[in-house]
């Protein structure tokens, strides 16, 4: 427990890892990942837009690191990895590991009730802890005559000071535990209230408007990339010139690194290998018009596909 805030620290220690032998012993609905087999289940809930990944076996270090790097956090009480929101990369990882992403059977209210139950358990534990600490302090105090001061220099001084310290520490621990129990009581009530709030028609309507706005942004991004692709793909009667490539790159911003090993050039061309825009790469002599068109085509093609994944996801959430 944090004595400063009286907010307890939950046990969210990452689960231990099993080696290759443990991974290879998984049975049932399993996924083969680089020679290892895991019994994994992935689900998605449109209520909170979260992906959940459950495993019947502990993951190998490499797979575990990939799950964590993708943004999944281990929830020990739920016994699963949870991502704060859906993304194409996270969904792809779930499909790779579990084979598919299924529907989450539990509703927002169901999960809130489960959280409230856990918070009630925390509250009960802290209340019992507070009562034990207070009782211990009272037992020590009962052994001291009422109003008896510490006799300085007397042989009982050392024992009396230790008793006073135990009483003080016990009462402080009791107060902190009672405060924490009250905190968990408020959290249990808030969990249910928040779930009910999210289900209100006006809140749902605002959430729909937000999703529609996000969808329009992705549609604009996709439309812009489609337009720039048409410009880069346009050949006409003459080949792509430096002037035309520079003009398009000035409007269609994209950047990347240009290491000398992949893009060799001699001075006076820039020898900079860090992140730079395609327009700068053209004007600094790092790439020519043909290379710029190839790079831009690849980038905008990926943007169109990536935006399409998001748009499909928003359509599913709205439905």
The N- and C-terminal alpha carbons lie at a distance of 43 Å
Mean pLDDT: 77
Count of DSSP-assigned helices: 9
Strand content: 5-15%
What is the count of distinct domains? 3
Percent helix among the residues? 55-70%
Main beta-sheet annotation: 6 strands, mixed
Low-confidence stretches: 1-30
Q: In sequence order, what are the helices and strands, one letter per element?
A: HEEEHEEHEHHHHEEHH
DSSP, total strands: 8
- Supply the helix-strand structural class: alpha+beta
Radius of gyration over all CA atoms, rounded? 31 Å
Q: Classify the oligomer.
A: single chain
Describe the model:
It is a single chain. The chain has three domains: 20-105, no CATH class; 109-198; 203-318, no CATH class. Helix content is 57%, strand content 12%. The protein is built from nine helices and eight strands. The strands form two sheets. Strands 1, 2, 3, 4, 5 and 6 form a six-stranded mixed β-sheet that branches. Strands 7-8 form a two-stranded antiparallel sheet. The longest helix has 42 residues, at 157-198. 20% of the residues are buried.
